[in-house]
Specification:
Helix content: 25-40%
Strand content: 25-35%
CATH architecture of the domain at 17-159 and 226-271: 3-Layer(aba) Sandwich
Shape: globular
Radius of gyration: 18 Å
CATH class of the domain at 17-159 and 226-271: Alpha Beta
Distance between the termini: 20 Å
Length: 276
């Protein structure tokens, strides 16, 4: 039974996505991370197809890398600003990725889009600011659109061993990033983390320049912490419909977007397949 029972989701202030994306580009090693996803799919998928539906496709970086690896990628994103940024980025990269604006937590809205898309071999849900309970809801909503033998892949976070040496449940730091498109444009982020046993509250204040003016915006984020030894029960899914696959701890990437003292791991479920 999943002990993370609280439901939550995060919405970003208008205009902030493009600034957050600067930090994503700096820290997230997309080619490395997505090659891990590629290997996981090849190891556990029982289908012969290469169609991926990426839920919460954000600004399109995962989707572009997966398309470069030979997948047909369809992205579903709830945030209108992210959809616009991702479509622009996809066009710049010259890859074949289709992104729809869609709230995949609303089944009727999801079904309307997926009627156009059809079945997929893999459904991804990576680094999305919603609760683990909503991860389950997303998987349930996508169930009929995943081919038999196909995969649902998500990510979780757990505390690293170094966390237990901390004397405080709080952490703070400052980060600076240079815009990948304008070498004279920088953004600063002040982070404050409050660690709980199952929830991390992450407050961030952003300072950046826009139209010749210095702007400041505040963002509040939340992360579920799922002990890896409890990951088998973290999703509320019928195990006869979704077989449980082994986790994969992300050690290939030198840096990531997670707060200090956390590590990220991949979980997988196989549609209509027995547990591994």
């Amino acid at each position: 039974m999943n002990k993370n029972k609280e439901r939550w989701e995060v919405s970003y202030p208008d205009g902030l996505i493009k600034v957050i994306d600067m930090f994503r580009v700096k820290y997230f090693q997309y080619p490395v991370f997505d090659s891990v996803i590629d290997k996981y799919i090849k190891k556990f998928s029982l289908t012969k197809g290469k169609r991926i539906c990426s839920l919460g496709s954000g600004t399109g970086h995962h989707e572009v890398e997966l398309a470069r690896l030979g997948y047909e990628v369809i992205g579903l994103e709830r945030n209108k600003e992210s959809v616009e940024i991702s479509r622009h980025y996809i066009d710049l990269c010259g890859v074949n990725v289709t992104v729809y604006e869609c709230d995949f937590l609303k089944k009727e809205e999801l079904d309307d889009v997926m009627e156009k898309v059809g079945e997929v071999d893999v459904c991804l849900l990576l680094l999305i600011p919603i609760s683990i309970k909503d991860y389950s809801l997303a998987a349930q909503n996508m169930s009929k659109w995943i081919c038999s033998g196909g995969l649902f892949i998500a990510d979780n976070f757990d505390y690293s061993e170094s966390y237990h040496l901390k004397k405080s449940n709080f952490e703070s730091n400052i980060e600076v990033v240079q815009s990948p498109n304008d070498k004279e444009n920088y953004a600063v982020r002040f982070n404050y983390y409050e660690y709980g046993s199952r929830i991390i509250k992450w407050d961030a204040v952003y300072l950046y320049e826009e139209n010749g003016k210095v702007c400041m915006k505040h963002d509040q984020d939340i992360l579920d912490v799922i002990p890896e030894d409890e990951s088998d029960s973290c999703l509320d899914l019928d195990e006869e419909e979704f077989g449980i696959l082994p986790n994969h701890k992300i050690e290939e990437c030198e840096e990531g977007l997670a707060p200090p003292y956390l590590y990220e791991y991949i979980i997988g479920r196989r549609k209509n397949g027995s547990s591994f």
